[in-house]
Amino acid sequence: MARDRVTWRPGPIASAVFLALVSTPFAALSIQAVSTGAVNSPREPVEYLDAAGMALVAVLVAGVVAGALGGAISRHWPVAALVVAVFVAWPVAIAMLPFTAALLGIEYGGVWICIDGCFPWIRDDSLTSGIGAYLSSFFLEAFGPVEVGALLLLAGFGFSRYRLPVVASGFGLAGFVAVNWWTIAPAGFGSWPYGVAAAATLVVGASVWILPMWPWRRSASGDRATGTVVVP
To answer: Rounded CA gap, 6 and 37, in Å?
Structure first.
């Protein structure tokens, strides 16, 4: 059926990869911004072309992984597919940063923390530093953002049960922002809220990615309800 062609796995993956390419400039700005250290730091940021190369690889991998997983889920639960896609894409892209820096031969240090001395959480010489930095951020998330995010996700689930997909998606995306707040807009980890543009692009891109899948699902549900047989 037409719905099957839309939700066939290569379709969502291709759409996610295209939207990932669109997001690359914003991701590059984020990567460049976190390489400068704290606000007003004299440290020079990584070159933008280097940041763009890192961003390109990171978002492509994230797009493939999130597109494949979200595309499979969207066959039955479009709203859940949207939420899962953004929740998966964000940490996958962060985890890829040290890999891409090492692969491209870029000396990179990002997300600088100053406790006694200053050091970067994400480094090209430590391939696990990306996912380590993401998981470490949940120490800060545990004091409010995670709880708020859980409530928003729960509210989204409730609205999805009442067949209000747009409202449910809004709550789900808000839950994503809350849960990942300290990797999106932390205070003092750059001269501007570096993750806002990248996260906003991810949210908008995921919304665009899932929209074509809803009409076919509603149509298929209506056909099943009326007993209409749709010929492929």
So the answer is: 44
Q: Tell me, yes or no, whether 159 lies in a domain.
A: no
pLDDT tens per residue across span 81-131: 888 888 998 899 999 999 999 988 888 888 777 777 777 788 888 888 888
- Condensed to tens digits (0 to 9), the pLDDT of residues 165-199 reads 888 888 888 888 888 887 776 644 445 555 677 77
Cα angle, residue 164 at apex, residues 153 and 150 outer, rounded to 5°: 5
The whole domain housing 25 covers: 2-137+189-211
Record the pTM. Answer: 0.77
The closest alpha carbon to 69, from 56, 57, 60, 82, belongs to 82
8-state DSSP, 190: S
Whether the CB-CB separation of 206 and 74 falls below 8 Å is answered with: no
Number of structural domains in the chain: 1
Q: What is the pLDDT of residues 20-72, one digit of tens each?
A: 888 888 888 888 877 875 555 556 778 889 989 999 999 999 989 988 888 88
Would 144 be classed as within a structural domain?
no
For 37, left (φ over 0), alpha (ψ -120 to 50), or beta? left
Rg (CA), the chain: 19
Cα–Cα distance, 101 to 67 (Å, whole number): 23
**Does residue 156 lie within any of the structural domains?**
no
Rounded distance between C-alpha atoms, residue 75 and residue 66, angstroms: 14
Q: What are phi and psi of 93, to 5 degrees?
A: -65, -40
Q: Is residue 183 part of a domain?
A: no
What CA–CA distance (Å, rounded) separates 40 from 173?
32
pLDDT at 5: 47
